[in-house]
Target: Glutamine--fructose-6-phosphate aminotransferase [isomerizing]
Amino acid sequence: DKGNYRHFMAKEIHEQPEVIGHTLSRYIDLGARKVDVPGAAAIDFTNLNRILISACGTAYYAGLVAKYWFEKYARLPVEIDVASEFRYRETPIGKNEFALFISQSGETADTLASLRYCKENGAKIGAVVNVPESTIARESDVVFQTIAGPEIGVASTKAFTCQLAVLAALAIHAGRSRGFVNEDQETELVEALGAIPGLAVQALKSEIKIETLSQPLSRVSDALYLGRGTNFPLAMEGALKLKELSYIHAEGYAAGELKHGPIALIDENMPVFVIAPHDGIYEKTVSNMQEVAARGGRIILITDERGAAESGDVAQDVVIMPDVHEIVAPIIYALPVQMISYHTAVFMGTDVDQPRNLAKSVTVE
Ligand code: F6R
Model:
């Protein structure tokens, strides 16, 4: 049931404050301001040497964000691959390794094959899945369920942000177990996560602005997305969503990679989406934007009030997000990114919930 929405995707985008809230309530104790991750005790994070993450598509981008978190908050090395590569590359699996698989459906063939490879080679298996009775869930030692509810739109939206919510809680848990997150830091991080539902409501208010700026986008043939840190995976997610829904060719790049090649593409016909909250590396992104502006590129900047004030007016359009703690930025900034591709696709008249050539669950390789 689409309720009052035109498409399942719109409904699922707007459900995010609620379903992220449901998901968080399973993994954090907001009263005590502590993470409380059911099943995590089965993993000996203290003695872990490495986490291996495999997933496909949007779930892979959630894993890439989690890599930044596990490394920063838990000082735990993470190796991540798309599952279709991981399953064939015969990576050695050593002692004290934990393999983590991320999948909305829990049925993706390549992700499942990667899981079975790790299991045969003695790794402990965890899965972040949305469907608890799925094959990936059944074959895992520990399941961290996302409580996103059924996702009908083929393009993943709410499953992605719920995956990030679970992974953030798990990274904080790992950091605490390994002694890199102390009590005060845990309180701060858990409070930040607890603020997500309210911040997501605010982020959704940018929809009117996004609808307006999306109209001319429906006439372009290519687009670039740039981000740094945990917003780099989000740039790739934005590009994937635009390709899937509106069939516009798009690429996501780490902003620092711009001058190593993609800058050659920039001209006045090239929209460049910059995903950049005002954080410790914002200034670097401002200089990337100046490089784009100097070549006539059309910048659409997604940032907060401070970021807008310090952007030096290089952007043609600015989408304002609420101020957020850095751990929640990729979750909140996912919402405008999803809405951009949704509204562009609606203007183009493509089949938003069922884009051409795509299937919701990829059970063959
Ligand atoms: C993109 C999208 C796909 C899936 C991918 C993995 O919008 O939906 O890229 O994320 O096929 O699917 P799951 O998460 O079911 O393993």
